[in-house]
TrEMBL record:
InterPro entries: Bact_TGase-like (IPR052901), Papain-like_cys_pep_sf (IPR038765), TgpA-like_C (IPR025403), TgpA_N (IPR021878), Transglutaminase-like (IPR002931)
Record-given protein name: Transglutaminase-like domain-containing protein
Gene3D superfamilies: 3.10.620.30
Residues that span the membrane, as ranges: 12-41, 53-72, 103-121, 127-145, 157-176, 535-554
Length: 638
């Protein structure tokens, strides 16, 4: 028959489970998080009140019901979401049949697995901190089951164990073969992230302007282009359906030939995942990553969706000329009807040279009484261009780019809308540019004979400071922006940049340490192949050196030391020595306390209490005896 588990360590185990499940609960569906929380509360209540654990039938039905709900919700019991949810449920239900030390070890092992599964959610510094704390909590409660210790003694032991593990963890980080299927598992929730989309409708970009999450970071190899020249090209919207703009198929290669008219800019981009095939590039890209191609709309298209952070080097032209293009007919497409006033206005320019039609369109926007706002009125329907140009006259960049492109097409000038980002914030701490979702921008591109496709930004006609000085300077009232994109205190802005530099370094040197970088390191060490006999021999040798070093340190420091109870007893004996009662060699605590009580009867109860607590702490199993002994000795005056 198993000895009943003690209540306090068991509740410590349940509290550890709460910590372990915390990041998972933030990812699970709300019903599952609430269900797991309720189960943990139920188990804690059973432990507190000493009730009987539920029967096997109840546990079986509970597990079956949870699995059925997980299947209905995630359509799977394996994989990143379904598998982790099933593991969390199994581990939690296992708490309801935990009756012995063996069960404690099994539940603790499941908790370790859940900590490892946390890195399938994210690989940030916060997840690492949580994992370390969780590992310490799990290990700490395991130690407490074996031998009760005061919190400070337990903390010291856990700290030593952590320090001993660090060299091995560093060694394995650099030399353990990278496992792409695990570390690169597609994020099933990435589609829910914000970012540019395949189409542009009124309101898309103004919503992005309220999102200050990072879209990508850029490190330049030479001079940094001025803010007004930082146009990061993304999706090209070529088809207008009367209400919004859509991009064509991305698999069409063979765009126009490109002639350089300015210096070449080289830079490295670190792009956050957005679950789309396109890559961002400054203006017109000249050289591309190996996995990318240039579409016939001069858009960089990757071979697969960007589901994890990508780092790539690219070169772009700051000034260019393009040759004839077979996409020109598509750049004149318009619906057969709709927006009659805009068509009438554009028709009045149709006899002018193309460059003059472009200038007339820009002048119309600059002098037409338009305003740039983050909260434009809702404009939709078959005459949305007319409503914007002649009625509301308030809009964000997508309104101006869409309306200008419509006018140019109606005037006979091939044109299209280009989506992407404009500007960026320089981080002096890391010497790189931060481009956030709030930098999302849309502009136009027109075809002019002799120059080919050239960028035209109608937003600059109504809000030039938006282009030159950033989004926060584009509005009359900066309060309309999120706090951190408005005008936060300088110290807070500096703190934000320092933190971003830390995050960037983490991404570059820890998360970014992939198979390619590992192979580069191996080659520097003279290893040409992972898992070769030479590699395994060196890895084993390095592991042996670390383990032997740790063993020697542990052996050297393993001198016999008094435990906490003995130290407190000696402290008590020293206080009695000052009164003239000296502990004799080979004199036991009971004999010594009896002799001291006879000398000072007025302290009889205090001396006996200290002696009993010392015996309980040294030889008994009362986890609170050591603390009681410590307090009693402290208050005993010699």
């Amino acid at each position: 028959m198993n000895t009943p588990l003690e209540r306090l360590p068991l509740q410590y185990l349940i509290a550890t489970f709460v910590l372990v499940l915390l990041p998972h609960g933030l990812q699970f569906s709300p019903w599952l998080t609430l269900a797991l929380g309720a189960l943990l509360l139920w188990r804690a209540w059973i432990s507190y009140r000493g009730h009987t654990l539920p029967s096997t039938v109840v546990r079986f039905l509970l597990t079956l019901g949870l699995f059925a709900l997980i299947w209905l919700d995630y359509q799977s019991l394996i994989g990143r979401q379904g598998g982790v949810a099933a593991l969390a449920c199994l581990a939690t239900v296992k708490l309801f049949e935990t009756r012995s030390q063996r069960d404690i070890k099994i539940v603790s092992l499941l908790a370790y697995f859940l900590v490892g599964a946390g890195f399938l959610i994210a690989q940030s510094q916060w997840i690492l901190l949580w994992a370390i704390l969780s590992m310490l909590a799990i290990t700490g409660q395991l130690i407490q089951w074996q031998s009760a210790q005061a919190w400070w003694a337990l903390s010291k032991q856990l700290l030593l164990m952590l320090l001993e593990a660090i060299p091995i963890a560093i060694l394995l980080f650099f030399f353990f073969p990278r496992l792409p299927p695990l570390w690169s598992m597609p994020d099933e929730q990435v589609s829910a992230r914000t970012g540019l989309s395949d189409e542009m409708r009124p309101g898309n970009f103004s919503q992005l302007a309220k999102d200050h999450s990072v879209a990508f970071r850029v490190e330049f190899e030479g001079a940094i282009p001025k803010p007004a020249l930082r146009y990061w090209r993304g999706p090209v919207f070529d088809f207008f359906d009367g209400e919004g703009w859509k991009q064509p198929s991305l698999n069409q290669a063979g765009g126009p030939s490109i002639e350089a008219r300015g210096p070449l800019l080289a830079y490295t981009m670190t792009m956050e995942p957005h679950n789309r095939n396109w890559l961002l590039a400054l203006d017109i890209p000249e050289s591309l990553p190996d996995t990318a191609m240039l579409s016939n709309r001069m858009q960089v298209v990757n071979s697969s969706p960007i589901t994890e952070r990508q780092r790539y080097r690219i070169e772009s032209l700051s000034a260019w000329k393009t040759s004839s293009d077979d996409t020109l007919p598509a750049a004149l497409q318009l619906p057969k009807s709709g927006n009659p006033e805009a068509r009438k206005l554009a028709a009045s320019w149709s006899t002018l040279p193309p460059i003059e039609r472009v200038n007339r369109g820009l002048q119309w926007i600059r002098n037409g009484g338009y305003s740039y706002t983050l909260n434009p009125p809702l404009i939709n329907g078959a005459h949305s261009i007319d409503l914007f140009l002649f009625k509301y006259k308030q809009g964000f960049c997508e309104h101006y780019a869409g309306a200008f492109t419509f006018l140019m097409r109606a005037a006979g000038v091939p044109s299209r809308v280009v989506g992407g980002y404009q500007g960026g914030q320089w981080n002096q701490n890391g010497h790189y540019l931060i481009v956030r979702q709030s930098n999302a921008h849309a502009w136009s591109e027109v075809w002019l004979a002799g120059n080919g496709w050239q960028r035209v930004d109608p937003t600059a006609m109504v809000a030039p400071s938006r282009i030159n000085d950033g989004l926060m300077n584009g509005f009359n009232n900066a309060d309309t922006l999120p706090f951190m994109d408005g005008a936060p205190p300088a110290w807070l802005q500096d703190l934000r940049l320092h933190w971003d530099s830390l995050v960037n370094n983490w991404n570059q040197w820890v998360i970014g340490y992939d198979m390619r970088k590992q192979m580069q390191l191996f080659k520097k060490l003279g290893i040409d192949e992972v898992l070769s006999s030479e590699f395994i021999l060196r890895l084993l040798l390095a592991m042996s050196v670390v383990l032997i070093t740790l063993f020697l340190i542990a052996t050297h420091s393993a001198k016999p030391k008094q435990d906490g109870a003995s130290q407190l007893w000696q402290q008590f004996c020293r206080k009695l020595t000052k009164r003239g009662c000296i502990l004799a060699p080979n004199e036991g605590p009971l004999t010594f306390s009896l002799r001291a009580s006879l000398l000072w009867p007025e302290y009889n109860s205090a001396i006996n209490y200290i002696t009993q607590q010392y015996i309980a702490a040294r030889y008994g199993s009362d986890p609170e005896a050591l603390l009681k002994l410590q307090q009693a000795v402290r208050h005993f005056h010699s």
